[in-house]
Amino acid sequence: MSDPNATASMDGNTLxxxxxxxxxxxxxxxxxxxQLRPHWEYxxxxxxxxxxDELVRRYREARRLIRDNDVTYNIYNDPQGIGRPWDLDMIPxxxxxxxxxxxxxxxxxxxxxxxxxxADLYGPRRLIEKGILPPELVYSFxxxxxxxxxxENSDGRYLHLYAxxxxxxxxxxxxxxxxxxxxxxxxxxxxxxxxxxSRVMPSLFRxxxxxxxxxxFRAMRSSLNSLAAYPDAEPRIVLxxxxxxxxxxxxxxxxxxxLGYTLVQGDDLxxxxxxxxxxxxxxxQQVDVILRRVDDEYCDPLELREDxxxxxxxxxxxxxxxxxAIANPLGSGVLQNPGLMAFMPQLAQYFLGEDLRxxxxxxxxxxNAEHRRYVLANLDKLVIKPFVPVNKQRTVFASKLADTxxxxxxxxxxxxxxxxxxQSQVILSAAPVLARNAELDSRHVVVRSYLVSRDQxxxxxxGALTRxxxxxxxxxxxxxxxxxxxxxxxxxxxxEKQDTLIVSSPHVMHKRPLGGDVPSRVAxxxxxxGRYAERAEGLVRLxxxxxxxxxxxxxxxxxxxxxxxxLNQLLRVVTHTTKLYPGFVGEDAELRLASPEEExxxxxxxxxxxxxxxxxxxxxxxxxxxxxxxxxTDTLRVINDIxxxxxxxxxxxxxxxxxxxxxxxxxxTALMSLSGLINENMxxxxxxxxxxIGRRIERAVHTTTLIRSALVYPAQxxxxxxxxxxxxxxxxxxxxxxxxxxxxxxxPEFLDVVLLNETNPRSVGYQLARIQTHAGYLPVDRSRQxxxxxxxxxxxxxxxxxxxxxxxxxxxxxxxxxRVKMDRVMDHIQQQLLELSNVMTTTYFRKDxxxxxxxxxxxxxxx
Amino acid sequence: MKYxxxxxxxxxYSKSVSSCYNLAHLFPRSxxxxxxxxxxxxxxxxxxxxxxxxxxxxxxxxFFSVHTPHQMLTVTAVSEIEIxxxxxxxxxxxxxxxxxxxxxxxxxxxxEDLDARQYLLESPFISLDENLHKYAQxxxxxxxxxxxxVHDLMDRIHNDFDYDxxxxxxxxxxxxxxxxxxxxxxxxxxxxxxxxxxxxIPARYISGYLETIPPPGQKRLEGADASHAWFSVYVPDFGxxxxxxxxxxxxxxxxxxxxxxxxxxxxxxxxxxxxxxxxTHKLCVSVDVEALESDGL
Lengths: 863, 297
Description:
The complex is a heterodimer of chains A (about 850) and B (about 300). In chain A, the strands form five sheets. In chain A, strands 3, 4, 5, 17, 18, 19, 20 and 21 form an eight-stranded mixed β-sheet that branches. Residues about 1-10, about 500-515 and about 555-560 of chain A have low confidence and may be disordered. By secondary structure, chain A is α+β, with helices and mostly antiparallel strands. Chain A has 29 helices and 22 strands. The two termini of chain B are about 15 Å apart. Chain B is an alpha+beta fold and about 300 residues long. In chain B, strands 1, 2, 3, 4, 5, 12 and 13 form a seven-stranded antiparallel β-sheet that branches. Chain B folds into two domains: about 1-85 and about 270-290, Immunoglobulin-like (Sandwich); about 100-250, C8orf32 fold (Roll). Chain B contains six helices and 13 strands. β22 (about 850-855) of chain A pairs antiparallel with β12 of chain B, so a sheet runs across the interface.
């Protein structure tokens, strides 16, 4: 933490007094050691008054909130990969109101300018004709999508959403480092940062008079609404996401919920009759506006990238027909051309007759001879970027290259000049951050601002997503590189209304009507979420009882008793329910039965084994996160708890079976709360019914598997009695049994409780009765007054159970070796449940057949 | 000359296709050399929607989709075209040296010249290749008139490469075509374009047809029973000039232009996305170019 450049401050014992100040770098907070800028004074004083310990406490509180809300950012190729918690620093970036109005005006100017460029490049292309932009600059940029040319709209508004990366240079002036026009990301994270900060520092936040973010999102809603052909007729707006693997999937789900849009993926949509439709369970619903988070090239495999599975074939034609609006429109990625920045001053003159209000970082495009000469003469002062990122070419600091690399770079620039862009190296400003040792350290910051079109101009979010470098000396700022983020407080000159200071939490704005659009994919994921949750719960219950017997039996064995029947039988049940054969079943199982710890541990931790607890939990998490927009905040918190227990199981610190005890206990609690929340806290609309049916099917399968694998082969009555008791405990039905039957444990009574009795919520009969109820609500064609396939299946099973006789099922066959009827009935129930699951899949989760490209016709070659 | 072109594309799938979305470049565009006075497209099974538009390059693109489950798809496009006689023969010695073309274009502000510069760049199917550049160098001797040099290049490609529909596919990269010295008209056109742009001469890809039955006494041309492809070169102050390396000739009245673009990908006669269809598709194309009585119809 010692920094030779950091001047010791007079009051170095306070937090802000210790602010690391470095000459030649603009410091956001101080003008010199211990000297706060005026707009930081109140904040700095409050921070000092708060003190280090309290600040750390609030940081922990923020971490907890982030974890609870399951705010994640996925880093590609990272072991922590999916579900990495979002990193929020405790010191916001403060921007004064006067300075902000300058920034605001500059950003609006830039957005309007970019809109005009976009309209021209896909329209008349006068910029090329008049020699303002070189043809090569436009035509060799891969995001210039020729099929998108010629699509006009009457109001001249093309760029709907825009984000700019801003940084302050040593002179203290902001400049634009990059434009984001493809599918600007991060506004949702900015909102979440605000929600967390306003909760952990409520009074400081309130008294600082910070501009609210909610009005910006309201503007976004009304802007997107206005894009629809009939804005007054409650247009259907969807947010198109690449899916759960995308780096900012959290944000997609978060914004979809916040704005009240249905979160969809490409295959949830289809093009028919010149329109785009959302495939819901029972019908197609027309989509009016698409908020796009899939890069434009991937949006239509017919006319754009043919290898894309993220898009909708035929989408572009619907756009041409004017029957759907997309924000941003397909083709907007062309404005992210890094060479375009070099021409922004001329473009501003051409279109507006003005200078840029916020300057660009100096940029040169080597395709222009003059620019190229400058770049080659000043190489060491510049950052060289590939025009198109191909072959892992990266941004390089020419001054840091070895001599041979430098020569190679010069040669490349000379042979293919239009493929290189140079930018002057901006010495980014520094802002204070809370370091791990609870001191203030400093990091370089880049501010991402957001704009949305409204009427004939733009609205700027009075706030931003500020990102910080991962190291103090590093000028590269990227969330993909693991840098943290900050809330950005734009200070109002006077307080805004008190009652609206805090941004409402997502579900308040959630306006989707009950039983709204449920895409088939969502129903599919909910169904499997139900199945995996129940599968995990059943397995954990089983494993806990096995653990108990294992601990017990080692004592018993020490006392010299021989029979290990119950334990062995339970171990076999583990293998049968997980289908992790051979396990404890088969001829060579003796060794594993004798010392079962290793195999049991593997059943718990080995996520490569299909059916293991870890693998089941992973599947559960993937299913849950794929429908996270359908789950409440509380449910997401539980999902997160499950994730934490899972990592506890996986970190390799489980050497012994007993080490897993805590995790198993916690998992039961978490899984129980999950099912509780699903019942109590999720609207009982169609999606919920799919989740329920999945859960019920799984529980019935689990119970019948248990009965069958433990009891079909008869054993000594004493052993069987102990076995029954343990089974009742696994099936959470021991109390029910004891209340109904005072005497010992008998098979017919056991079957009555866990199989037939429809008032026991753990029995198979109860599961079937519930499925029957749910099946009656599924969206099937009821015009023919017939039962649906799934209704018929359940009715048949339920009737069979209701007619069954427990003593009959317990009867041992003539050769005294097997309970024939029990075996047959359990097998039949399992088969029919499997069939039910298949029927559900084909009826409701009908995935379109595989999408593929036609073999294109080829001239001169006969096939 | 007047022609009627009938282009039938027939797909058979091993499994049913529930929906398909297609983009066709099957209707000939009009140009200074030809007039297309009628075009029809017939899709079987019935296409719920057929939309024609002009694409980025001014070609006639046609979108259609089929939502009837089918195991066979037949697309029949019929057009009637009149080709205008070219008038005087081209002057191959037109006095623009090839090595001045690029400088002329870079310093010009004329819109045709600016427009031609988009055809100087690499594209999805055309990349620059050192070996190809070297191969072309023999034709591009210093100061040689550009048309003469291009004609020589066409001549060499025709002689050095064998027409063989079985060695390459759409996905075969140019360097491999070059190594094997075999290919079809599309490969030869791509190859020539790569050679030309590496010498700073704008070149584009032309998709079209050839007259099927040759006039008496003339040889039947290669590629006549399918659609055909060749390339075109831009000469400042002169315009675009077509060359057909497959048949080693300057296209005259027997070449019918359908569409042009940077490469095959911009003007694929028929492409599409299907749902279902199983693993194997059979494609069968037939093209019939029939000369019409000039006073008939």
